[in-house]
Amino acid sequence: MSRPCNVVVLISGSGSNLQALIDSLADGTSPAAIRAVISNRAEAYGLQRARNAGIATEVLDHKGFADRERFDAELIRRIDAFAPDLVILAGFMRILSPGFVRHYHGRLLNIHPSLLPKYKGLHTHQRALEGGDAEHGCSVHFVTEELDGGPLVVQAAIPVESEDTPETLAARVHAQEHLIYPLAMRWFAEGRLRLGEHGAMLDGQALPATGYPFRTKEIRDA
Ligand code: GRF
Which chain positions carry the site (Raises pKa of active site His) (predicted)? Predict the structure, then answer.
């Protein structure tokens, strides 16, 4: 296998997506290697998950900085110490400055709990229910300066049931997140996924504007 793909993961909370990324590397067939997990919150449980997996951790508390630009500059310095090929936002609850986003252009991924471009921002499960949507889901996308607006890589859709609450919906969407984020990381690490001039490309082909339409049964073949 060629050189590993160095990955740095940014978190703020529970880190269940981080766990899915870690678990996806267990069989040793992916060229991705998670070099560090960085959190802006010292109490984030995801830090423990990283330590359990023997991954380096760092805490960078945004409250110690006068403004977003200075925090982001220090965050870049910490991330770049691990020479990342890919930076993964996994529940990192900070809006990133344009300078940060530009610095990692084409190597910064995020996961969002909705079928983007629907429901950018917060409370996505509640909004999908209020909207009477038949389907809801999650999206992995390249990060650009537009919040939750970068080119889509992969989406997983689930049916909304009449008895769903925001909590039941969130749980089923989360389960899909844990499938599609490792898939996107693997594609990137294998050199199959990249950000082209007009959007995300997989195996040299432009992906649909809504990203690769993931279906659970396909995970084995993708
Ligand atoms: C996920 O719902 C993700 O879509 C959003 O933040 C949440 C992180 O959850 N960006 P976890 O910390 O990975 O459990």
Answer: 148
The whole model's pTM is what?
Answer: 0.95
What are the domain boundaries of the chain? 1-104, 112-138+145-222
Integer Cα distance of 124 and 166 in angstroms: 9
Q: Is the pLDDT of residue 1 over 70?
A: no
Report the distance separating Cα 215 and Cα 111, nearest Å.
Answer: 17
Give the catalytic positions in this structure: 112
Among 174, 181, 185, residue to substitute to test ligand 1 (most atoms within 8 Å of Cβ): 174
Which architecture, in CATH terms, is 112-138+145-222?
Answer: 3-Layer(aba) Sandwich (3.40)
- Is 166 touching ligand 1 by the criterion CB < 6 Å? no
Structure-token pair, residue 47: 């830090």
pLDDT band at 215 (very low <50, low <70, confident <90, very high): confident
Residue 81: how many CB atoms within 10 A of its CB?
13
In what helix (H) or strand (E) does residue 108 lie, and over which residues does it extend?
strand 108-112
Q: Average per-residue pLDDT in the chain?
A: 95
CATH architecture of the domain with residue range 1-104:
3-Layer(aba) Sandwich (3.40)
